[in-house]
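pls ignore typos typing on phone
glutamine + seq
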Amino acid sequence: MVDSLTMKIGVLALQGDFAEHIAMLQHLGVETAEVRLPEHLNGLDGLIIPGGESTTIGKLAVAYGLMEPLKKFGQRHAIWGTCAGAIFLSKDISRDQPLLGLMDIKVERNAFGRQVDSFEADLDVPEVKQATGTKHDYHAVFIRAPIITSVQGAARVLASAPDGRIVAAQQGHFLATSFHPELTNDTRFHEYFLSLAD
Ligand code: GLN
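k done
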């Protein structure tokens, strides 16, 4: 188990559901900080980039001078992107919008199509089960979710949807999930991220 009480985790609070991530982290006893400016990264052990709208998050990150500081922060610290955050962390989305490019993954936005704007699925995530000493599947919530279409270099697949499409990837201390663990009561993905930030 991670000693979460000594950690301080930031949540990028430019747009999207950052408040839900903060509530989840506080529930786990972690000290949190909202990150809106480069100096807010000082003293953090890790950072979560929430779901929302990746184009808006990217534009605001450029406007607040956060792009380079976030890339630099990622050289030494864990970063987890959920949904729009996963898009923002990736290297390639086949269109032009600001990206951190920290993870060697390709992502397709809104890839599940209109009919299934939102859906839920049970995922088998062996690493998360092992890290948290649990056996049951992870119930994931998808909202206008992206798909990770390819995982390259040092990145690897962490979880796939029942139809085989990749929905979570890890590259060292970087984590990308196309679903929203902050919108559930299951804290296991947050615990797993804390183990990467430790
Ligand atoms: N569709 C959004 C995007 O492309 C992501 C949706 C979400 O974060 N729930 O940025």
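The pocket of glutamine is lined by residues 51-54, 83-84, 87, 109-110, 143-144 (CB under 6 Å). The mean pLDDT is 95. more later
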